[in-house]
């Protein structure tokens, strides 16, 4: 094969390569046909998305119309809504609320919880019928360096200084073994074993612990017969709260239904040095006797009668 034939074949191959490349470039730029979405396909997609979202939501029982207090709830009053996040303590099934009587007015849209059917506030549900809740002002020293927590037991100590109305200083346990209901805005458990306040997340829990350390009030469960004594002690002198050991298992006995009130009454009465000191009555003062007057000899009066002179004492 001569050189002319070879060059001709090469030219033909070159032209074919250029044509093939151009054709491939045009094909790559051709628009891709988009699938046509029918109404049926769109509805199916939306239903699938809604079903997936519904599985992640939580059921909450709400009131669909205003309900007066002390009126039993019926099925017509209630509905179930799906929320992304259910409120803490909310009811999730209508059967949990049917026939129950709320103690306050429920407006439409209110979500229900156990608190909706319980009378009284959180503190009232933390004590028994023979106890009273009393707040005591504290500082870092009185409140055990800010380390008190709901559920602790403390002895209430009283120090009386010596002054004009109190001739003898004293330090005594006014009331032993008082249960701490709350420190600042942090409360413990109600008598049904549930938290008195809604559960908090990690960040809110840290902030609440910081407020508890800096709290200036402590809420105590006081036996009713000792209530006036504690109130008097808070005004009479300096208080201290002494923390008792958890090994005494007082809180466990409380949840078991036992009562420490009789023992606390006896211990308080035995340990009290002198209750009159709490009232700042002090010891009875010795009346000041008037000075004894001694007889002073008065000079006589000289009486002259004629030639007789006599001395007479008036």
Automatic annotation (TrEMBL):
InterPro entries attached to this UniProt entry: Pilus_assmbl_Flp-typ_CpaB, RcpC_dom, SAF
CDD domains (UniProt xref): SAF_CpaB_FlgA_like
Pfam family for this entry, one: RcpC
Segments forming domain SAF: 58-118
Protein's name in the database: Flp pilus assembly protein CpaB
